[in-house]
Specification:
The chain is globular. The longest helix has 18 residues, at about 25-40. It has one domain (about 5-40). The mean pLDDT is about 80. With about 40 residues, it is mostly helical. The chain contains 2 helices and no strands.
Length: about 40
Amino acid sequence: MAVHHGGKVGKAGKTLSNKNSSSSAKSKAGTTLANHKNKCH
């Protein structure tokens, strides 16, 4: 899968890969990524 840079999706990916992100931020980022994948891929 292509890596997304910039925008909401890229930021969500960075949040997920960042070990210091809080779990609530991670779940929100995961939802963002999942929605994007369903819509665009």
